[in-house]
Amino acid sequence: MELLAPRKLCDTCGSTLEFEMPTGFCPGCLLDTVLESETQGAPGSRINDYELLTEVARGGMGIVYRARQRMPSRIVALKMILPAHLSSLGAVRRFRAEAEAAASLDHEAILPIYAVGEHDGAPFYSMKFAEGDALSARIDHYRDKPREAAALIAKVSRAIAFAHEHGILHRDLKPANVLFDAVGKPYVSDFGLAKWLRRECDLTQTFAVLGTPFYMAPEQATDSRGVTAAADVYSLGAILYHLLAGRPPIWGETPMEVLHRAATEQPKSPRLTNARISRDLETICLKCLEKEPGARYVSAAALADDLERFCAGHTIQARPAGLTSRAWRWSRRNPVVAGLSATTVALLVVLAVILPAPREAGKSAPAIKAVAALPFDTLGAKENGELLATGLHNDILVSLSKIADLKIIARNSVMQYRGAQPDLRELGKALGVDAVLEGSVRQIGARARINLRLIKVADGAELWADNFDREITDVFALQSDLALQVASALKATVLPMESAGIRRQPTRDAHAYLLYVQANDLFAGYNKMRPDLERAAQLFEQAISRDPKFALALAQLSQLETIFADMYDPAAALLEKAKVHAEEALSLQPDLPEAHMAMGRYLWQGRGHIGEMDLAGALREFQIAERGLPGNAEIHSVIARVQRGQRKWIESLAGLEKAAALDPNTADRWHRVFYGNLALRRYAAAAQAMDRAVALSPNSWLFELHRVWLPIWWKGDISALEQLRAPLGADRERYTADWIGVQMFLRRYDEAEKIVREDPRDAIPGNRLHGAPKSLFLGDIYFWKKDEAKARQYYESALPLMERVVEEAPLEPDSHMALAHLYARLHRKDDAIREGNRACQLLPESKDAWLGVWTADAMTEIYMKVGEPELALARLEHSVSVPAGLHVAALRVSPLWEPLRNDPRFQRLLAAYEPRD
Amino acid sequence: MLDVAEWEEADERFEETAWSVVLAAGAETDARAQAALAELCRIYWRPIYAYLRRKGYAVHDAQDLTQSFFHHLLEDETLRRAARDKGRFRSFLLGSLKLCLADEHARQHALKRGGGVQFILVDELITEELHFQPRTSELSPAEALDARWAGVILERALEKLRTEFDAEGKSETFELLSPFLAGEKPNTSYQDVAQTIGLSLGSVKTQIHRLRRRFATLVRSEVMQTVAAPHEVENELQLRDVFARVAQQSAR
Question: What are the percentages of helix, strand and coil residues in chain A, rounded to 5?
Fold first, then answer.
């Protein structure tokens, strides 16, 4: 090798030196060093002592090879785990330890592990090569041979019982882990290895990524720590079920759905699909699948015993339990899981499964993982001190929210404690945190002194504290260090990607940054006022003009512009700017989560504003943003709101609940949880969420309205609605249409008319209409007062006005629907149906399940109004069964459905969809 | 519970930006995989630029094409899927690039809008052109890609090695020992180094041996990030051949 000479070839190795290395090395020589080192020069496919022959299988987590071992000479199966699937070096070590323990199991039906090793950081183990295929490839073979299936599972159960006696759980039993040798002898493989594999996946992903949870016990999903031998018994039962019934006991589209169903639903009797199964075998199978671990066989050995008894034609010991009694028993003993809501279960599932398994190993006191950073105090002269404190607080909060291992309460939920001295215990309870971060900033000339303290709420103990003394211009560069120190004091796991995101400085221009801090402070609150937004936009622009490469400021400005356009700008002129700013931010910093959030918001809320919502595009952007900001409440909320448009109701509700947990003092988060539960007709959970929203915002009339309307949807109970107070002040103006609606529902028509007549406006904005003419309301009032002549008069004067509204905004589905209603009342049946259908075409459920269902329901009602109860009835089943559709109890009391009330088909339908909670 | 230090230790080997993550995501576009792909592209754009320059594109065109190719690649699901088999990242990039170049319309379109896209910092592109591209070359475009590819991998491993020494306060030791990474130096003997550092000849040799082993490990880890399976690392190291092959050609 030689430092670069003007010649083109290396003196040492003769390589071409056309492509210089900045260090002056010859790449050929360096590669020689690499090739000489460690591996003994064997080309290509050799790993340590093994020559790789063929690739047998490749899965999400690793690769299995058929390989030839040199000493002793034999054919083996070599399984390599791709490093990307192990969460840390520590995990590799523990994985090896676990594999070595499993290697000690010597049983005729356990696939022997020969050796455990590591190659270039990737762990592998070699094992007996099973010449036959896996049970997953033979499932159909057993369908007609229940006795053979029972004998096979008996053998497998014996092997599992043997492992249990040696203190090893399998944890991931499934057909793919039961292998056959050349003569058809079964072997169980992969003992205890599953738990070391990274589970930090998104449960909404496909099975290809996450693997199949069809055979996983429900308690394994919600509490992977407390798993016992009973979980393996469940899996054995699930495999047996699959062999007998031809499908797994619990089925679903995504891992999330499967786990959720496993926790809440009973498997169907396998005899329903396969008549060859005897009652005894079904009893054995279902006993394994009991939700409550204690109700299953006490051990794998007991299961093996009963299966062997069955095969020998003896009486089995298990007794059948009725399906309903089982479910009842389980829910009685697990009131928390069964009673709450399926989403809460889903959330628990997410928490339990997502937590990287290695954390199980920690046996010390539970780590503190939920923190609230209270607003920092400003000491001494205010000047910039206030701004410094606000900015630093916000930055540390944002940085900590990038760490997936921490739960950090959102800014909006802590701002109310500014300058207060809250009781820590109460605060901990209210926010669901176990520690708080307090701080103060004192400005002394050009320097700032910062004090930070981390305190445990349970006993007020100080976990960590430090002082910093910096030039003011350096303060914001300091925040990443502070955030990481806090994380380290909390013993939080900080992934390399996360710390890189935290360390990145958004701008080098301190002044631009101060402008950004001010802007963000105005923008960050939940209920943004127009002048605040306008001022914030100016400040963002000033910051950007100082530093045109300030991607974070561009991203925030873009979000602000989208929100502004949606709220105040029907012409949507700002949208183009929002798009350009999001694109600029992305091209400056393609992985900036806020930039993806801005683009997502533009595609969703911005494009939605002009009727071109791109849900899929928005979701993609939001999910990228979520990776970078896992602790940000808003990102979970927007993802959830996109998902419900895509019919992902369960995931959506889980996201809304997560947002509320991260931002528990913001009433609106709970209001959304209410909506999420209501859509799924989980009325009890909806009521709880609504109570929280009302407690946080007792003066909101809208919240009060929803709280009292809920009993009608739930039970047809109108007593709470009767007590509703009138909206006052700004609420009066905003919710006039709703207030009129309440009076109409309570049949207080004179009161309704009074409200309409007293309103100074010509048109009254409604829930989804920008403005409906007063005469339309009056027409409805007289229609229900059964004064047909007067009603007709009002409707006719409303007609030209409504037609003009539709003409002016032909893409607005709600206007078409309002016109359809008017036509229906004027007995113009064909026109009504045409307009209604037009609304449905503009906003079909396929485009947006959330809003589309409302339109579809309104169409169902149009059929009632035009005197086509048959057609309405035909659509009604869809409306009462689809999430976010109509509520059965409300149909019973609504005057609209009077004509069908005694129709037995109507009654049957309502009975079939009676709410259960 | 893992402590932070353990994670940092783990960092180098378990980087999130791994080709296998991209492949593991299958046909589904998974955000983590997409981020991983973007990260890989950000590391490995230089070989693509070298390829384009050897292919005869002028500086500006090659710059624009590089920018827009990566932009396009990260945006366009069909292009990405078309070229993605379960192979190496290097083949994937070259395959996608060829697809892109073969599509005349896409190329024109890319050139036209290339100016607006900034995937790679313009400064970096200029530096690449000025300092890393040969004025004249005997390499074919594909060989240029491989040679530059090897360079990027080696540079990254060297940089990590240097950082490790810096972190231990041994920057000087690294300066003294690193020349031996490429084999024995004719004009600086082990003895000279031993004297400068003030260690015995034996321990200097041991240190150099360790340094070389550590370097080899870092290079392998680096390569591991660009292949689909661990055993493919050794295959990929046969990149070595390109230098020898080219040398033979130029000797002729």
Answer: 55, 10, 30
pTM of the predicted protein model? 0.51
Q: Is B218 within a domain?
A: yes
Residue A613, CB-side half-sphere exposure with 13 Å CA sphere: 24
Q: How many angstroms from the chain centroid is the CA of residue A214?
A: 20
Q: Which string of b and e fits B22-61 if b means at least 16 CB within 10 Å? A: bbbbbeeebbbbbbbbbbbbebbbbbbbbbbbbbebeeeb
Q: In a 10 Å sphere around its CB, with 0-12 CB exposed, 13-18 middle and 19+ buried, how is residue A283 labelled?
A: middle
| Residue contact B182–A31, C-beta within 8 A | no
| Cα gap A873→A895, rounded to integer Å | 15
Q: Quote the CA–CA distance of B181 and B166 in Å, as a whole number.
A: 17
Is B243 in CB contact (< 8 Å) with chain A?
yes
- Verify that A180 and A297 share a domain, yes or no: yes
Residue A31 corresponds to which amino acid? Answer: L
Of residues A119, A495, A587, nearest to B117 (C-beta) = A587
Count of structural domains, chain A: 3
Measured in angstroms, the CA of B162 and the nearest CA of chain A are apart by: 11
A19 touches B at CB < 8 Å: yes
| Short-list A740, A797, A802, CA closest to A766 | A740
Would an 8 Å CB–CB cutoff place B216 in contact with chain A?
Answer: yes
For chain B, the residue count is: 252
* Residue A112 resides in a domain: no
**Among B132, B233, B239, whose Cβ lies nearest the Cβ of A31?**
B239
Residues A380 and A350 in one domain: no
Interface check A365 vs B, CB under 8 A:
no
Q: Which amino acid is at A372?
A: A
For A31, the enclosing helix (H) or strand (E) is helix A27-36
The count of other CB atoms within 10 Å of the CB of residue A537 is: 20
* Ranges A89-103, A334-348, A537-551, A865-879: which has the least confidence: A334-348
Q: Which of A473, A505, A537 is the last residue of a domain?
A: A505
CA–CA separation, A795 and A637 (whole Å): 41
Q: Residue A78: which region, alpha, beta or left (left: phi > 0; alpha: psi -120 to 50)?
A: beta
The H or E element containing residue A471 is: strand A462-471
The two three-digit tokens of residue A436, written as one number: 């708080």
Q: Does B7 reside within a domain? A: no
**A639 falls within a domain:** no
Q: Going from the first residue of chain B to its last (252 residues), give the mean pLDDT of each consecutive group of 10, the final group possibly shorter.
A: 29 44 60 75 88 87 85 71 65 83 69 61 78 74 88 90 86 86 71 81 84 86 77 77 68 52
Residues 138-157 of A with CB under 8 A from B: none
Provide the residue type at A885 as one letter: G
pLDDT band at A909 (very low <50, low <70, confident <90, very high): confident
Phi, psi at residue A81, to the nearest 5°? -100, 125
Residues of B in contact with A198 (CB under 8 A): none
Structural element, H or E, at residue B142: helix B141-167
Question: Could you tell me the CA-to-CA distances from A814 to A613, A761, A765, A810, A827 in Å, in that order?
Answer: 16, 20, 12, 10, 20
Does the distance separating the beta carbons of B158 and A624 come in below 8 Å?
no
Q: Report how far apart, in Å, the C-alpha atoms of A276 and of each of A151, A158, A193, A269 are.
A: 16, 25, 36, 13
pLDDT above 80 for A525? no
- Residue B84 domain boundaries: 12-251
Q: Report how far residue B146's alpha carbon sits from residue B137's, in angstroms, rounded to the nearest whole number.
A: 14
Instruction: Write the CATH number for A403.
Output: 3.40.50.10070
Q: How far is B201 from chain A (nearest CA, A)?
A: 21
The rounded radius of gyration (Å) of the Cα atoms in chain A is 33
Work out the pLDDT band at A719, boundaries 50, 70, 90: very high
For residue A844, the one-letter residue type is P
